Amino acid sequence: MTQEVYQRAVELLEAEISDELVALEPNQGACFGFNSVAKDVWRKLERPRSFEELRSELVAEYEVSDEQCTRELRELLEEMSRAKLIERAAA
């Protein structure tokens, strides 16, 4: 069974404001805002990671159940994928 791996698809110009991240994708001219958890996921994706790796790290770092983390991480990764910020590849 292949495992999905997520990786960054673009390089962003980034600025941290408080615990959030504001980022600009210069080719599209698109601006993105990341809350603290989304910023943490983006930082983790500096190297390709599987969904399971990301989920395990987030569950260890935040007070969140496996079920809630799974649901919210899937939503975040789908949103990032639709925005063409990340891409999926088979491991």
Care to describe what's here?
The longest helix is centred in the C-terminal third of the chain and has 17 residues, at 66-82. The mean pLDDT is 92. Strand 3 and strand 4 form a beta hairpin. It contains three helices and six strands. It has a three-stranded antiparallel sheet. It has a three-stranded antiparallel sheet with strand order 2-3-4. It is α+β, with helices and mostly antiparallel strands and 91 residues long. The protein is globular, with a radius of gyration of 13 Å. The protein has helices spanning 36-44, 51-61, 66-82; strands spanning 4-8, 13-17, 20-25, 30-34, 49-50, 86-90.
Tell me the layout of helices and strands:
Elements (H helix, E strand, L loop, with lengths): L3 E5 L4 E5 L2 E6 L4 E5 L1 H9 L4 E2 H11 L4 H17 L3 E5 L1
Antiparallel strand pairs: 1-5, 1-6, 2-3, 3-4
Mean pLDDT: 92
Report the structural category: alpha+beta
Number of separate strands = 6
H/E element sequence: EEEEHEHHE
How are the strands ordered across the major sheet? Answer: 5-1-6
Helical coverage, percent range:
40-55%
* Biggest pleated sheet: 3 strands, antiparallel
Assembly level: single chain
How does the overall form come out from the CA principal axes?
globular
Number of helices: 3
For the CA atoms, what is the radius of gyration? 13 Å
Low-pLDDT parts are: none
Give the termini separation.
10 Å
User: Strand-residue fraction?
Assistant: 25-35%
